[in-house]
Amino acid sequence: MAEPRRTWKQVLSRFLLLDLIKGLLVTFKYQAPKHCYTEQYPLVRPKVAERFRGAPRLNLDPETGESLCIACNLCAIACPEDLITVVEAVREYVDHEGKTKKKRVLVDYTYDTSRCMFCGHCQDVCPTYAIELTQEFELAIYRRKDFVWSWEMLEKGIEQPIYTR
Amino acid sequence: MEEKKDKPTPKGASATKAPPTLPIVELTGDPILNRLRARFPTAVLEAVTVLGMPTLTIAREQIVDVCRFLRDDEEAQFDFLTDLTARHIPEAEKPFQVIYHLYSFPRNVRWRLKVNLAEGEACPSVVSVWSAANWMEREAYDLVGVRFEGHPDLRRLLLPEDWEGHPLRKDYPLEFRYNRWCEKHLNMIAFREGTEYSGRFE
Amino acid sequence: MELFWTIWNHPIVSEYVVRRLPTIVIVLFVILTVAAYLVYAERKVSAFIQARLGPMRVGPYGLLQPLADALKLLSKEDIIPARAERSIFVIAPMISVVASLVVLAVIPFGPGRATITDVNIGVLFILAVSSVGVLGIILGGWASNSKYPLLGALRSSAQMVSYEVAIALALVGPLMFAKTLSMVGLIEAQMTDGVWYVLYQPVAFLIFLVGGLAETNRAPFDLPEAESEIVAGYHTEYSGFRWALYFVAEYTNIVISAAIAATVFLGGWHFPGLTRLAEPGTGLYALLAVLIFAVKVFAIVYCFIWFRWTFPRYRYDQLMSLGWKWLIPAALANILVTGAVLVLAQHLGLVETVRTEAGERLVSLWPWGKLFLIAASLLIGVPIVWILLAVINRRSADFNLRVQRQIRLPERGEEEIFAEV
Amino acid sequence: MHKPEIAITRERLLAAREMVLNMGPQHPSTHGVLRVILKLDGETVIDLDCDIGYLHRGVEKICENRTYVHIEPYFDRLDYVAAVSNDLCYVETVEKIAGIEVPEKAKYIRVILTELQRIASHLLWLGTHAMDIGAVTIFLYAFREREEILKIFENYFGARLTANAFRIGGLQYDIYDGFEEQVRAFCRILPERLKEYETILNENRIWLQRTVGIGILTAEEAKDLGVTGPVLRASGVKWDIRKAFPYEVYDQVEFEIPVGENGDTYDRYLVRMEEMRQSRLIILQCLDKLKKLHPGPVLGKVPKVIRPPVGEVYHSIESPKGELGIYLVSNGTAFPERLRIRPPSLINLQALKKMAIGHLVADVVALIGSIDIVLGEVDR
Known about the structure:
Chain B is α/β, with parallel strands linked by helices. Chain B contains four helices and eight strands.
């Protein structure tokens, strides 16, 4: 393919290093402080989107303070990584009419955050909105075994470090 | 895998009633197929259309000739090998299948070719027809264990050269399988039952 | 003890050691601090260019960052690769750093005591000593017994050798005006003449700037340590304080490069009207002079940083062709043109030679002599050099990259598409 | 692993003209864990071999043991800089074989998000490619624009990178309030930012010297090597799956396919820059059409457990890297029988040998960048 002849304008702009100077001007322009894009992360916490999928949490009923989880095991089934374990038991209880009924209750619930890929399938299938992936995103932990979150931890949430400087 | 009991098993209870099948239509009257059949009378074992994609089963010995014909024929013009892969079907009589997806830029048509292979049979390599087949055949050899005859450089592509087994075979387990490569290269230490993994380099 | 004092009071020792010692200590301290803060400046400027903030964590606005870096580098484990040539591996960074520090001896930071020493072959001294620095890089790359450092060392040796020629030739032009090799003499010559040599010698200044970038391994000529190609080049295997030595050498070289450019082309500490502000010889004058010099140096250093964060990197062969096919012919042509212009000016009586106590000085007469020299350099020198280069390089590949190719799409504006929607 | 053919002994080392250089897997510019074994004469490449597989996770094997819904998050991790495109390909494949209908509105939203992902992927490519050649600043500028896209993704999907974007049969979420404004705001700034990058690079003599005429791939070679995507288009083949086999609503929007002429690194750069502009046009058109559909369903009728009929299907989309195809064999159960991913990066990477031989080490780096590989997809 024949290259097109270059025009006098191109020759002159090359001679005067215009191609380089134009680039230099762009980078020079960006030095103005208003172009700064950095977030000062630990000092200024970013606002995370409402739909963000972060640390898991087992929600409590705001009125009674009991766990919303009905031990249906759907989250464990929906999880592609099989990292949720739901241990359930059948308990007998007497309802307000005096009849004896059987009810599935949650005995234990663990969640392995080290294997979680935060796909959100568990919160999608949960019929009672018990398991939820929250906006918490600081999940780093010093010991590997602590990645497996217990029931208690899932309800309380992870303790957030506060950075001063 | 114990927790998985609630999930539908791969070949479990639902296998008793036959699942529905995609409509498979016999491919007839295609001009290129007719030319192919005229040129290689014994090559095309089966010609069907699945979801609009012509699927041809080709005799093993003639796959390279068929491919070259399809590439060079002025009506077929399959100048592009989109994909080449292999499949393991343990229950079939010929347990290995190599699948080619061809594409023709001028005609904007895709075709699928299949070659069935018996255990231990090698598939003729189509690298001489399309260079694109080079790595795809290496990958098929690596993961499914189909050997390709006439491949210029048939080494494993993804796994280490001295790995044992071919992972995409159905008899290859999903769980970790101890093999010599791991012993040699990963410096593995057997943990006793109940060892705590602290995650610290202590 | 008496022997000590005898030596101490010996005229040679007192002249070359005792009197210079405070300046040496101050200059070393200042330059090493400046080198450290140059890293900070580089990080900050690059950050601003890239719409970032740069170091902000250590101290206010990250001002203590160099200190933290130095502490970290000092406390790091000292690693020598197992198959490395131990002694050379250890010596190599020292050669580099010593070579760059020795050059500081003749850099005129200011009038009188502010300059360590004024050697009458200052320019030659700088050229000679700074080439020793390459040795440190080559040896370090070779002694690492690793492939990437070796490649980096080879690249840097080729690069520095070829660009040194261009730099030396570019310096000849100003020397023809100044008629001296002494660095202080160069500044005094520009003071007597009243015009900085950048106006008489724009081509030489450009060549020197490009050569200086290449000589100090700065982008777009940072091939010896091109991180995306050969990892870290010659210092791939270095870590901890040895690596810091290379780093110090590199940044000191930048300062030196900029200082030479400021001295030779921008009049050193000279600034029009400076003598009116302060009497020459007073402390205030010296202080102002040093400040002016520092400002000039930092303007050039800023340009170095600015270029680095704007331009892509040259390739090895392109770098060589730039050096040998563009800069060296240009420098040679510049010498010829300058000589011719000077001879012409003398014939026309536009310049005259003044005898001062330091030697002969060339002074162009106001206004026609100065105007003639400036106009000659711009209107005769630049076109001649350009035509020569165009003729030399008319067959080379990069010269013929005349295109700015475009993807050809059907001519349809955005408005048209949306009109249909 | 590959063993260099030259056994390194002192005598042979001294006698040999060639040097075997091991580039990667830990190297600043091999875009992950690609290992390229170069045989050099001086700095000229005389032979080259890629050793891949350091990131092999056996995704195809995993997929054979997961249900169709479970597989989706794994697709985010193939080409992790273009997760949305991967998800689209998988979801469409399953919909095609299971015969699931997707609502019209969901299709438009899918196209908008996929095109945003294409811009994001190309921006990342631009940044890393320019950084490989030495222009570091472009990298941060490109990442700044990419950040705007990731913010949209975070608001929409709830994740920035591995989005788990779509659901079989439609979408998980409807658009959020302010979605349109946010996307339009991004579309407003994009052209001027692209202009800035081009001011720095397009005419820059160093950039031209580094890219023009480097790694030329003719149209014939490109087709023979199975190269797809921008690399193929830069070689002068006007082929884009969005036009050839329109999926979603690409047949209802107008856009051009930028095509190069010479098939060198510079043309690949130009093609990708133009593709970003075209993607922006697609997004704007889709936003206009989405307005008319706005209150509407986004998820079609999907069975609780997806058991596609027995059969096989091949479906491919134009991912930012090239043709991303999935060959899916179903056996009628909830688990796929065989799921083969045709990774564009892997097959484009094959062309590296053809391109690189005869060039210098520095060009190999530029070429790896210009092919635009992601090792998550190459190794799977």
